[in-house]
Amino acid sequence: MEDKTIAVWFSCGAASAVAAKKTIEKYGNENTILIVNNPVDEEDADNKRFLDDVEKWLGQEILFAKNTKIGTTSAVEVWERRKYMSGIKGAPCTLILKKEARQEFERSRNIDYHVLGFTHEEKRRHDRFVKYERDNVLPVLIDAEITKQMCFEIVTSAGIKLPKAYSMGYPNANCIGCVKATSPKYWKLVRDKNPDVFAARAEQSRRLGVRLVRYKGKRIFLDELPEDIKGGKIKSYSCTIFCETDNL
Question: How far apart are CA 140 and CA 151, in angstroms?
Fold first, then answer.
């Protein structure tokens, strides 16, 4: 393959960082590689440090894809404007800040292929993306049989500290307080590690009438989550240009 333009969608996580590195190594000599990020204000502040470190590691500028029609990169502001946070229609933050921003970026470039940080154990997610979103996706990490744990090791061996979100117990370095999450374990973690975020989500969701937690088979408001709820490991999830939670 040569003379193609490949967009690697970097989400400030270890997997997408390694996907970018491997794409450059495999295709960079004969093709144009674009590393693209969808900035969202609600990600942990340390993600910016990680992005800068990865940019130096790649030796290539990371571009930003924004939805210029909405004029914001804040999920909170999107929810407020739409008076809707999450439900059967999905989440407007994903549609506006990720999907529409990606589509706008695509219209300004002639993209031949896309690369996302789907790891070897996420082939099902990759296959779903190819079926419903784009069929021109290069499964760089899957083909190389690179797992998520291997991505952690590759990044740290390069001398790059992983995003703070991982050390706090979050499975991905996406937004803190993801409104598509329904798991009590997830929201307990947010309440314990980021109480200010939990309080803000609880206030906004109550005011907008959104029950974000599923507890004992019933949807409840965040401020109704019992104090003695048990924690535990949270399932991995993804929030890139194709967002899903696996009921985290």
Answer: 12
| C-alpha span between 158 and 240 (Å, rounded) | 24
The Cα-based distances of 158 to 13, 54, 61 in angstroms read 15, 10, 18
Domain extent listing, the chain: 5-163
User: Quick one: average pLDDT of 185-194?
Assistant: 96
Q: Please name the residue ranges forming H helices in 28-84.
A: 46-58, 75-82
Residue among 156, 195, 199, 182 at smallest CA distance from 245 = 182
Instruction: Read off the pLDDT of each residue in 154-175 and give the average, rounded to a whole number.
Output: 95
Closest by CA to 11, choosing from 237, 174, 177, 181, is 174
Q: Which fold has domain 5-163?
A: Rossmann fold (3.40.50)
* CA–CA gap between residue 213 and residue 225 (Å, rounded): 8
243 pLDDT above the threshold of 50: no
Sequence-separated (6 or more) residues with CB below 8 Å from residue 64: 36, 37, 38, 39
User: Is 0.85 surpassed by the pTM of this model?
Assistant: yes
Six-digit token string for 187: 């929201």
Neighbours of 59 (CB within 10 A): 9
Q: Can you read off the two tokens belonging to residue 207?
A: 């005011």
Q: What is the pLDDT of residues 103-146, one digit of tens each?
A: 999 999 999 999 999 999 999 999 998 998 888 999 999 999 99
Concatenate the DSSP letters of all residues of 68-119 into one string: TTTT---HHHHHHHHT--SBTTB-HHIIIIIIHHHHHHHHHS---EEE----
